[in-house]
Queue: 4 jobs
Job 1
Amino acid sequence: NAGVTQTPKFQVLKTGQSMTLQCAQDMNHEYMSWYRQDPGMGLRLIHYSVGAGITDQGEVPNGYNVSRSTTEDFPLRLLSAAPSQTSVYFCASSRGQGQETQYFGPGTRLLVL
Amino acid sequence: KNQVEQSPQSLIILEGKNCTLQCNYTVSPFSNLRWYKQDTGRGPVSLTIMTFSENTKSNGRYTATLDADTKQSSLHITASQLSDSASYICVLNDYKLSFGAGTTVTVRA
């Protein structure tokens, strides 16, 4: 049982490039989400999904797209990278929202030059 | 303004000593409040969860308390160990999660 996995661990992009951050979980969780973590700030929700085929925007969705074609996978796409997207990105999953415990992946550190 | 404010931003303690971290919040009531531990380079891991009506919850050497009157939660670490060096994040759930910025704890031998 690997839990929540994320790839890559590190990535350097040039402004304007696009890329996809991968996230997968093997716990059969319905709820998955993407956060970014910046110095001195709390985790901020980018997008989330309550099940396969259903996604919704979080607090800071601009510049990011997601899809949820399977229960296991929840990729995050950066359409045209900007320096403001330099951050650490965490994917999380849980059985549901509310009282359910969220399990976080190890994170992807992204630097946009 | 963030609904969850944590203090101090960072602290250094000697191994074996106790410490207390603070979390002040503005939303009341709420569904639950969690404390997470985040080791360097890793994702957060849940330590404790308290509902609005609970006052205290323990997980080994970690004890979280909740004071609804002052809108404060504390996380007390007893007999600190080097492995306690991490960031500790307070998270409020009022059907939307609000994350504090965290307190970085460094335990020195």
Note: The first strand of chain B starts at residue 4 and ends at 7.
Job 2
Amino acid sequence: DSGVTQTPKHLITATGQRVTLRCSPRSGDLSVYWYQQSLDQGLQFLIQYYNGEERAKGNILERFSAQQFPDLHSELNLSSLELGDSALYFCASGDGRYNSPLHFGNGTRLTVT
Amino acid sequence: QKEVEQDPGPLSVPEGAIVSLNCTYSNSAFQYFMWYRQYSRKGPELLMYTYSSGNKEDGRFTAQVDKSSKYISLFIRDSQPSDSATYLCAMSAYSGAGSYQLTFGKGTKLSVIP
């Protein structure tokens, strides 16, 4: 068990809808990262937060947003969903040092129909 | 050319075989190298973490880094059916302002046949 908790495990929704994915990092970790994993693209970095502040952005669409709350949990919001947004969304946490490895949750499987 | 290249496989070996998994990279700024194992419908699990060129051993697993050739490897000795998973290489480079980019290979799917 990595200590990173993601909810829900599965989401099925329709195109055009909005969903929120939730992540609780490992105890003591200040940094949260969101990744998208699809069959053809592999793991793609979306965004990183450190202690409540955005630290880095990757290939995150404008329809997607995230935040990290004072208790360090994070939410990823996906809006105006398209079929192509169907994927696994992973949260990872780390202590924020640049040389520290990341620990991943078990992901949220999003299916857009 | 992608920053990190990894043969997706699939790779199928008999139980007890030595498995070799490899990644090449193009970005000289990568400093830290990791291997993750991902079982179906699970998140990636950190297996090995290395910094310098050379070998690092942990049980049946050996990670090898050759920075001059921009090549990393993971060896699995005495492979077991429970090793059947997708193996992802990952590497990080400091990108300033306290942030770093962790870049993943696409993963190699390994099956160990009893």
Note: The CA atoms of residues 71 and 90 of chain B lie 12 Å apart.
Job 3
Amino acid sequence: GQQLNQSPQSMFIQEGEDVSMNCTSSSIFNTWLWYKQDPGEGPVLLIALYKAGELTSNGRLTAQFGITRKDSFLNISASIPSDVGIYFCAGPESGTYKYIFGTGTRLKVLA
Amino acid sequence: EAEVAQSPRYKITEKSQAVAFWCDPISGHATLYWYRQILGQGPELLVQFQDESVVDDSQLPKDRFSAERLKGVDSTLKIQPAELGDSAMYLCASSVDPNTGELFFGEGSRLTVL
């Protein structure tokens, strides 16, 4: 089946720094989603992207749907301690509503 | 704010025992998903329901796992017999419109098999 690979696997940054992470696939996705999971909780949707090239913001978060439709990027500006968590990209397998999740990027913010 | 309810929150069992997890989705959400998340990995879809019908269960180990959503509302995921490798977080999610990709997740049920 289709797979989503995320990088970096983990990041340690200082509070106030900007963060970039990406998600790639060997196959095309028509929707890209970014979720955040806090420890011991279920994932929560941050941003949804539905069109190639689309750039969407949600507060300090900005995500882009790659032109090739095989990748997506998430940026967090001016990180704060509550940004700590695991960020997952996700998307539906071709022709289905079966949402698969990436391998995750674990973010730690040092105050 | 409406939430997806799951129980139990934690379950410790011995291998070969039976376990069951329950999920009550947000009212009006016709699509329900069960995911398994092994520590350090992303969620893996086990089964997807549309109302009471199974849409996809291709990743469900059917020799030991079963899932049902009899009245198209709440759902139960069962494992019998449990194996050591089943230790994971079992997440339930629901969606009012799966086309959007907006899945609402519960807090999960963490299973430890000894």
Note: The two ends of chain A are 40 Å apart (CA to CA).
Job 4
Amino acid sequence: NAGVTQTPKFRVLKTGQSMTLLCAQDMNHEYMYWYRQDPGMGLRLIHYSVGEGTTAKGEVPDGYNVSRLKKQNFLLGLESAAPSQTSVYFCASGDLTNEKLFFGSGTQLSVL
Amino acid sequence: EDQVTQSPEALRLQEGESSSLNCSYTVSGLRGLFWYRQDPGKGPEFLFTLYSAGEEKEKERLKATLTKKESFLHITAPKPEDSATYLCAAYNQAGTALIFGKGTTLSVSS
């Protein structure tokens, strides 16, 4: 049972490049989330999904897009990376009770 | 605006020295107050959920309590392995996403 798996674990981009972060969960959870974590800022919600085919904006959605085409996968896209998007990105999932979230191990992204 | 605030930002304890971490929230219609532990380089790991004022939950040396405006994470006789960042979170008003505090980084030295 892998839980929540994020790929890649590390990535370095140049300003203006694009990339997609993949989150996969094998727990049949309805809810999935993307957070970013920066020093002194805590975890901030980027986008989330309450079910397959649905997405919603969180606290800091600008510069990111997401898709939930399959229930088990939640993709986070950066169309034109900026240095301000240098951060650690965490994906999480939860079931319909949402009593607790399960987090992936994170993706360290650096934008130069 | 829904908000979760944690204090202190950092806490240094000697092994065996008990203390408490604070989490205050201004979320209307609280649907759950959560505590997570995060070790360096890893994702947060669930500890507790509290739903109503007066509720308490325990796990080993940790005990979480909830009032109408605050939650406390009490650490009794901590050990070095309790060193981590402790995060508090509450659901937004829609009940669809967790709002996290900035965390308290706990260091326990032997």
Note: The two ends of chain A are 36 Å apart (CA to CA).
